[in-house]
Design a protein that fits this description.
The chain has helices at about 15-25, 35-40, 70-75, 80-90, and strands at about 5-15, 45-55, 55-65, 95, 105. The chain has about 120 residues and is an alpha+beta fold.
Length: about 120
């Protein structure tokens, strides 16, 4: 039986309604470039969802045992189509105020889990 882990990240969209509408259009069902979804699957991501409140986004990834964040970053850096997508997304996204230099999606810290 395989086990999954969860990674959660946050990022802001630029606070511009037209840009936010365009960003959502790029992420509508079936609109994300197939090379991007394939690179996500190839890295061991089994589910990925992005939520939006105001202009703040939250990305939740369920990953399998093969997922390694460093390996994913390396794969992305060596994939021209992923780099093209990331450059396009910078038109819409902006780093959080506390992000490190060049960091867009910032890892979130879990502070509570309901134990039954």
């Amino acid at each position: 039986m395989s086990t999954s882990r969860r990674f959660c990240f946050s990022c802001d969209l630029k606070d511009d309604s037209q840009l936010m509408t365009e960003y959502k259009a790029y992420h509508a069902q079936g609109k994300v470039w197939p090379e991007i979804t394939q690179s996500i699957k190839d890295a061991g991501v089994v589910d990925l969802q992005i939520y939006l409140t105001g202009n703040r986004m939250f990305m939740i990834m369920e990953v399998d045992e093969t997922f390694d964040p460093s390996k994913k970053a390396e794969m992305d850096a060596n994939n021209p189509k992923v780099q093209e997508w990331e450059e396009l997304m910078w038109k819409y996204q902006q780093a959080l105020p506390w992000a490190k230099e060049g960091e867009k999606w910032v890892p979130m810290e879990k502070v509570y889990k309901l134990d039954w």
